[in-house]
């Protein structure tokens, strides 16, 4: 269970990413999530990608990278 719901297929696909120093990870889902679920998701991503900024948006769970303007 995640966020008090039945297990859902949270990851539909995985892209190979080359993260740069100032990149931000963006997670989005079409589902509405509780603040607790968003916080746990952010904590999980920050643990797997230390030092990276993580943005969680409600709107098709996918992982993207925002490139810095360097």
Low-confidence stretches: none
Morphology call: globular
Which sequence of SSEs, written as H and E, runs from N to C? EHEE
Name the average pLDDT: 75
Tell me the distance between the termini: 40 Å
Strand content: 15-25%
- State the share of residues found in helices, binned by percent: 10-25%
* Assembly of the depicted chains: single chain
Number of H/I helices: 1
Structural class: alpha+beta
Total E-strand runs: 3
Give me the side-by-side strand order of the main sheet: 2-1-3
| Largest pleated sheet | 3 strands, mixed
Spatial extent as radius of gyration: 13 Å
Sum up the structure in keywords.
3 strands; single chain; 70 residues; alpha+beta; 24% strand; 3-stranded mixed sheet
Would you kindly provide a written description of the structure presented here, covering whatever features stand out?
With 70 residues, this protein is of the alpha+beta class. It has a domain at 24-66. It is 20% helix and 24% strand. The protein is built from 1 helix and 3 strands, in the order βαββ. The chain has one helix spanning 35-48; strands spanning 24-29, 53-58, 62-66. It has a 3-stranded mixed sheet, covered by helices on one side. The longest helix is centred in the middle third of the chain and has 14 residues, at 35-48. It is globular, with a radius of gyration of 13 Å. The termini are far apart. The mean pLDDT is 75.
């Amino acid at each position: 269970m995640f966020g008090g719901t039945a297990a859902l297929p949270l990851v539909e696909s995985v892209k190979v990413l080359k993260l740069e120093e100032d990149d931000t990870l963006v997670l989005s889902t079409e589902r509405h999530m509780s603040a607790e679920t968003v916080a746990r998701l952010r904590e999980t991503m920050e643990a797997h990608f230390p030092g990276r900024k993580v943005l969680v948006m409600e709107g098709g769970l996918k992982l993207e990278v925002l490139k810095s303007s360097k």
